[in-house]
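Async update (no meeting this week)

Hi team, since we skipped the sync, here's where things stand on the single-chain job. The sequence we agreed to prioritize is pasted below, unchanged from the tracker. I ran it this morning and attached the output directly underneath so nobody has to dig for it. Comments welcome in thread, and please keep replies under the output.
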Amino acid sequence: MEKRRNLLFIFLCLIILGFTVNVSAAVLDWKYYETDDFIVFYPKGYEWQGTEVLYYLEKYQSEVREVTGNSAQFKTTVVLQDMGNESNGMADPITTKIDIYTNNPSTYAAMSGLENGHSWLRSVSVHEFTHISQMTNTSGTVGVLARLFGNAYSTNSAPFIPLWMVEGITVYQESQLSPYEGRLNTGYYDALIATKAKENKLPSISEATYPHNHYPRGQWYLYGGEFFEYLGKEYGEDKLAEYFKLNGSDTSAPYGIFFPSLSLDNSAKTVYGKGFPDLFEDWKEEAKQNYQSWQVDGQQVLENKSGRIYNLLTAHGKIYYLKELRLTSAPFNSKRNLALTEYDPSSDQEKVLKLMNSSSATSMQIVGDKIYYSLLDFERGFANLKQSGRGTLGVLYSYDLTTGKSHKIFRDDFKDFVVLATGEIIYSKDNKEEFGSELWSYSYKGKEKLAVTEELISEIRAYRDRFIVVAKQRVGSWNINYLDLEQDKVSLEPIIKTPYTEEFIKVIGDKIYFTANYDDHHSVYSYDLLSKRLAQITTGAYSVDGIPYQDKYYFVSLTADGEGVYRKNLDFKSVAIPEVEEERALNIDFGGKFKGESAGLKSLSYLFKPYLRFPFLMGEDALGQNYYLLNYFDDFSFTFGTKLLNSLNLAVSNFEEDNQRSTELSLDYPLYSSKLSGLSSLNLGYSTDFDEDSNPKLAVFFSYPRQDISLSSEVNLKVDDSINTTLNYRYTFNNSSLAFKAKRYDDFDSEESIRAFDSAEVDEGYQLSADYIHKLTEVRSGSWSPNIFLGDIYGSVFIDYAHELEDDNHDLSGGYEFLVEMGLFNYLSVVPRLGVTTDGQEVKGYLGVKMDL
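Output:
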């Protein structure tokens, strides 16, 4: 019997491997470019992105290595992915691999200023390679371990260093490429620090380390980048490399995960003469001194502590905008919604018109009694392997102010749109064949492609018989242009051309209102299209996305905990348009050293180079389609997984159990997913051990602005009437939630879930539980060494019920528990539970913990 199972396992692996070779070579017809230091995999048709990424990596490699102190020889794998309207990058030091999302973010992308750089592919390539170079910098004993067993042993990567250090050096380096590129140059980060420093709300080093309910989210990019800029200016950039060299050889790093004073601070004292807590406080004190006079040029009208406010418009005596809402429902659990909002200046009242899932990455427009807006959603058909060909696109809606109802108009991966008086909609989308945009028309006749531009268009507005757009060259800033669109002829004529980004344009009469960062901080401006004069409307602190209303000007600025709407008198101060600095044209020439090769076999060859070699072997191919895990200690076990047809996830495992070999197979297929309200995902699955279990599975998820519902079910085809079904429901209030869970099982082992009382494995029964979880207080404080952080504290009133059918046993209890958000070891999120419960006969106290990486 055991021999047959082993033969079955080998046979399955051979079939999967053979099928995978054919599929991997065919999926999207991937190719690669290779040099001595980099290999770039890209989908067919993305040659220009592949060569550009390779060009920037080669060009800036020495600068990145110098600032991170890494002189070792290694080759970095890069995979380009088209994720639709999503822009991002990822770096994995263990596999020495980078993923780059090819979409050039629009001015509405809200990427903390990274969207405003002169070249997206340059910024993201340098940012991600800085990760690789910094986190693989090892020497001494640590270097020997990393070379022998894999980069997981590097003390310059997680979990040995905090996230603000991981992201801080990359934000710093991305900002060295150009004075108009990188998050330390585009103004938003400086404005956040200034606002918090002025109100004495800069975080402690512990608060900067751990995820919690903080504005902005992902604070380690902000504080890490600004802190590293301070270190570079105060102590010299060469000290950054010196620190990473020293830290990359530190054998005491495992102790430093909980006590950073034993490792990170020792290295810092050697290089800087101080530990990180003192250095961090020095940086905060300098920021407080620098920004004492920071002041918003206006009166605050509204505040949103949850996130962004954007797309301000006026109509019918009201102001309309989109507002992000983040609802905290439980420890380390929040839900982000988008609110279409109306504000009445005369009554000073705000009203949410529509609460929505998803987010928006375009402008908004009002025509008559309808508000036109877009939401992001998933769609298949994109050239990526990361999400099995699934990417994001826009869905255009109209909201009727009279009826209060929304209507879906069309779906496409558009960057922006404009609704004409005739009802026709003109929109721009990226040209996939080369840099630039396609212009499309949508009407009752359907969609029609109108033209192609060499420039990339981010914003589009109608003006008389022309259009006004925000557009950029392949390398250059976002500027304001006329667009003439006549049949097959299309041309752009500059209106304002500077090395800075002009964004969030509003065309009202013969004036363009827009935002720019001309004076090292964002201000709102107006440009008269007739007189060709530029005027500044706000001065002082950060102000963006403004709109005139009567004799006032409303705009968005920052508060220490979020964003707010401000107003001021509408005054115009004439200013000069900044001079244009000529951008050197991009000239990529590798001298014919390489050509695009088919990636199938090249990708699979990575399977023979395991990236982790102790205490077990782990490896995957370059494109992430196949992986394996081999445990060669004690009882030999092996797992091999693959993606069939780029969607069906298949895994086969062979291991020893009860003194005999067992083989298990599992299949998982993500059939559907969406960012919009309603059905959010539908997954199908199957698992078998080729003996007693043969289990088809179904998982369905529904998501609404305040409600989440999940249903999962499986049966065992080898056992009659077997079932294992779980239903979860959560309703989210602003700072609390009501959660309900129900479970029905028959011929599936399950442990009775009655808090604090003895649990027993039962074969058939029901389980029910209900919790009302509510926030009690915000602590948000911690200690650097020992490394511990407390976030928010919640309380929960609960009821548990279990019914074991075989012996007809009933268990019912209820009680109250305290839940604490706790961060440990730089990356571990822990929720300690302290509670009391009773079943009507006895009262018990209990202590538990839930952990999450």
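Quick observations from my side:
The first helix runs from residue 2 to 26.
Residues 19-26 have pLDDT under 50 and may be disordered.
Reply here if anything looks off.
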